[in-house]
Amino acid sequence: MKRLTLATVTAAALILPWTGTAFAQTKTIVGDTQVVTATVESIERSTRAVTLKKENGEYVTITVPTSVARFDAMKVGDTITVRYYDNVVLRVKAPGEKDKDTDTAALTGSAGARPGGTGATQRTITATITHLDPAIPSITFSGPNGWKYSSKVADKEALKKVKVGDKVDITWTEAVLISVEPPKK
User: Which neighbouring-strand residues pair with 128?
Assistant: First the structure.
């Protein structure tokens, strides 16, 4: 699973000012669901390397982790479909409200005989706005464990709705569903 992806944090920085100055106000940024389908072209079982041919004809080789239980059930010609989803929820915090720094994850194997499963992670941090630059326009955050992030903001007027020192909870959720199907006959 990805951690604090550039895309989700950029989305947070672009949308954050729209949350307004009312405390406990939230804004959800729903991500796109991305679907990638590929065909298994070759499998090197000793190294767990699988070469896939994507729909656009590109080849990519991946190493399947040992935690994938039904790796041996995968066959050349199988179709692998990966669905990826993410979203970000932003909430301006009230003064004095406790900071957050949580990370949860879950992995569930598929119930069928074929390899597959679902993985999900949710991360929440409290970030502090440390710098606003209306000339660029940009916003800079800092958070736990030395985390820092700066991004341009699309709407200059929106920067007027927040100030340096405001704290924001940023929660991002990512989920991946992987399914493996035998070749169509």
Answer: 142, 167
- Chain segment 24-80, per-residue pLDDT in tens: 566 666 777 888 899 999 999 999 899 999 999 999 888 888 777 788 888 999 999
Give the Cα separation of 48 and 65 in Å (integer).
8
Supply 137's token pair.
């326009």
DSSP string for residues in 42-91: EEETTTTEEEEEETTS-EEEEE--TT-TTGGG--TT-EEEEEEEEEEEEE
Calculate the CA dihedral of residues 30, 33, 34, 37 and round it to 10 degrees: 170
* pLDDT tens-digit series, residues 127-166: 999 999 988 998 899 999 898 988 887 767 767 778 899 9
Residue with tokens 């944090």: 9
- Look up the pTM and report it: 0.63
The answer to whether 80 and 178 are in contact (CB under 8 A) is yes
Q: What are residue 20's phi and psi, to 5 degrees?
A: 80, -175
Pull the structure tokens for residue 58. Answer: 């590109």
Q: Where are the beta strands (DSSP E) in the chain?
A: 26-30, 34-44, 49-54, 59-63, 79-92, 101-109, 116-133, 138-142, 148-152, 167-181
| Three-class SS state of 10 | helix
